[in-house]
Amino acid sequence: xxxxxxxxxxxxxxxxxxxxxxxxxxxxxxxxxxxxxxxxxxxxxxxxxxxxxxxxxxxxxxxxxxxxxxxxxxxxxxxxxxxxxxxxxxxxxxxxxxxxxxxxxxxxxxxxxxxxxxxxxxxxxxxxxxxxxxxxxxxxxxxxxxxxxxxxxxxxxxxxxxxxxxxxxxxxxxxxxxxxxxxxxxxxxxxxxxxxxxxxxxxxxxxxxxxxxxxxxxxxxxxxxxxxxxxxxxxxxxxxxxxxxxxxxxxxxxxxxxxxxxxxxxxxxxxxxxxxxxxxxxxxxxxxxxxxxxxxxxxxxxxxxxxxxxxxxxxxxxxxxxxxxxxxxxxxxxxxxxxxxxxxxxxx
Length: 348
Fold this sequence. Notes:
By secondary structure, this protein is of the alpha/beta class. It has one domain (6-336): TIM Barrel. It has 14 helices and nine strands. The protein has helices at residues 6-14, 36-42, 48-51, 53-65, 80-84, 124-136, 150-157, 160-169, 171-195, 209-230, 268-271, 286-291, 294-307, 324-336, and strands at 72-74, 88-90, 99-102, 143-148, 199-203, 236-241, 259-262, 279-284, 311-314. The strands form two sheets. Strands 1-4-5-6-7-8-9 form a seven-stranded parallel beta sheet. The protein has a two-stranded antiparallel sheet with strand order 2-3. The longest helix has 25 residues, at 171-195.
């Protein structure tokens, strides 16, 4: 089998093809890969790197170059989209990620108060330029661009507690809000693809079954996720949903993604029958990655492989205190599990 680039490998596995070894990635966005050790090594730190394309690209490049995950991933937070639609964002510091501190709406009925969406708004140009810079390196490493899912964006534009009440009481207004958000995310996602993204990861932490339940997941999350996914002509489409997923297992097969990523609290063996035809991505515990020994990380990585992970990844975003050595161990373990003659193929 010919030597594959990391782009080749991720694309092949996402579409059920044979590879020399499984990919080991951390997409970015909600599943942020940046750690303090990489900031110190590169001399680049937060919050400046959230707003400067060259620094954003350099940070994620440095982690991969240091023997870390087999991808680049930008941005490093979930606030870019909400900020562009009018939310107020605290950019955090070297220890904390950006976060929304003021929602522009108090109700889904106030749609006309949202800022007009533009690719020139907020930090969107920073992300798009970072994607171009990373793609221009020509390293064969996939550039994964990240989008916050429609429900999660809605839950920052309107207080999430109020939104959940209005899903029941004001469904028409909520659907109008979800539709407008999805239109904006499509514009953003297509710009990411045009900039050179090899994969798109949509993170939907507020769209989990634990928060929405099966009925509202089916009504408010699934159709808008699929509309967004269908609009993106990119080799690899990933969806990550947080939390326990028992209540929506049967809905997951309807997602139009190539790979599905999930939390450490979800059993790979249990969820896999509901994801036929999709690559299973995950789900190494991030608390362990941040605090446990290299031997433990090796055990957890092998367990994910043995249980059926097609793409090995952290189950969520990394703690900033995660040792680089633990990331390197995770990546090396995946590579070492397969000799040059062995191949892995997505199971039916």
